[in-house]
Structure formats: C-alpha cells, structure tokens
Amino acid sequence: MTTKAKEAQNQVQFDNYAKQPAILGPYTTHIWNTDPRHLGFLLARYKFVAKMLEGKKRVLEVGSGDAFGIKVVAQTVEYIHALDWEPLLLEDNRARLEGVNCTFGCLDITKERPEGELFDAAYSLDVIEHIPAELENAFMDNIAKSLGPDGIFILGTPNVTASQYASAASAEGHINLKSHGQMRDLLGQHFANVFMFSMNDEVVHTGYGPMAHYLLGMGVGRK
Q1: Angle at 156 between CA 150 and CA 161, to 5 degrees
Q2: What is the pLDDT of residues 101-157, one digit of tens each?
Q3: DSSP code string of 21-57
Q4: Which CA distances in Å does 36 have to 23, 26, 41, 92, 165?
Q5: Helix (H) or strand (E) holding 123
C-alpha cells in the first residue's frame, strides 16, 4: 500500500490523519449519525463566540458537553476552563483535547461557581433551556459572579417560537425555552448592557426576533 499522495501538497493531510485522526465525542457522534447538518449550526454558534471574545485571556464555558466546539473558541482566546455536570464526559474530553489551551471541571453551576481568579468572559450554548425555571436565577447569578466587573457573557438557546419544529427528543429536554424579549430581560437583570442577535441555520443577524430559530444574547458589564 502506497504512503505517498499523488499531489505533494496533500501529503501533510495524510500524515496528520495517520498520527492523530479526529474523534468526535458521544454527543456529536450521535448528531453526525442522525442529523449531520446540525454540526454546521453548532460550529457557527461557536464561531460567533470566538469572534466576540477574541483576545480574552481567561474564558469560562458553562455546559461544554463533549467539547465539540471548544477548539474553535480556543483559536482566539488564551485559556478556557470548561464546566459540565456530567462526570462521564470529563476524562474523554481531556483525552481528546490534550494539548488544547483548555481545562475541564465537573460542577453544577446552579449550586456553586468555580473557585479562584475571576474570568474575563463566559459563554453557555444550548444549556439554559435544560435548566428548570426556578433555578435559572442561580444559574445566571453564579456565572455573573465568576466574571470581573467588565465581564462578557454570551448565552445561546433555541427560540421558544421555533419549538413547534423541534424533534420529540429536543422537546422533551427543552423545559425552559425563551423568547427574544425574555432572553433580553434575563440578561438585563445581571448585566448593564445587553446585545441581542438572531440566528437561522448558520446565519447570525439582527433581524426580527420572533422569526429566529436560535437566539444569541451578549451581556456586558456585571451589575
């Protein structure tokens, strides 16, 4: 079996693939096998976070899941500490992302916040819709208290107005969906400045909130 590519400029891709083939985590493997288009939407959300937080030194991710998008954000910030409350993810994430400028911790943000130095920014994508409404204030408060006074927090969640199009599995887990106005109000309770964005498929825009499939809100300046 030949080990040389026909075109020399392609050899590095084959060499890298032989040394370290990419492995998806448990959540994203399921998406790849059942709805691969959705990975494009996920990556677009992480790209938005990466562009907004470019140059930040210490960043917190709340609800990292299998950390599929963390390398996108890691390209533009110095360090990420990623939290999730599922302990089964921890060792797998650490093994797959060895050498990336990130660390992982298991913590329930509705009960406590990470100890130590404050973060410059935080983000949480596809998490708050799984948090019971009676715990959302603790969720937001612990994130805000993890940030410095000028901290930035980016929150992403499906729009309640799009819930009629959700799959049965998504509908079952999404117990706390927000509208555009509700999300703005929630961020406004904890941050001095709020900027709202809408998202349809991979496109982020500032269009009419009720017609967005996905919402992205950015709070700036901790109250």
Answers
A1: 135
A2: 999 999 999 999 999 899 999 999 999 999 999 999 999 999 999 999 999 999 999
A3: -----HHHHHHHHH-THHHHHHHHHHHHHHHHTTT-S
A4: 15, 14, 10, 21, 17
A5: strand 119-125
- On the 0-12 / 13-18 / 19+ scale of CB atoms within 10 A, 59 is buried
Residue 171's pLDDT band (cuts 50, 70, 90) = low
pLDDT 10s digits, 60-105 = 999 999 999 999 999 999 999 999 999 999 999 999 999 999 999 9
Q: How many CA atoms lie within 13 A of 81 on its CB side?
A: 18
For residue 222, give the nearest of 195, 189, 197, 196 by alpha carbon. Answer: 189
DSSP calls for 70-118:
HHHHHTTSSEEEEEES-GGGHHHHHHHTTTSSEEEEE--TTT----SSP
The answer to whether 175 and 207 have CB atoms below 8 angstroms apart is no
3-class state of residue 120 by DSSP: strand
Residue 202, number of CB atoms within 10 A of its CB: 14
Q: Which fold has domain 37-222?
A: Rossmann fold (3.40.50)
Q: In what order do the strands lie in the sheet with 79-84?
A: 102-106, 79-84, 58-62, 119-125, 147-158, 214-222, 191-200, 203-205
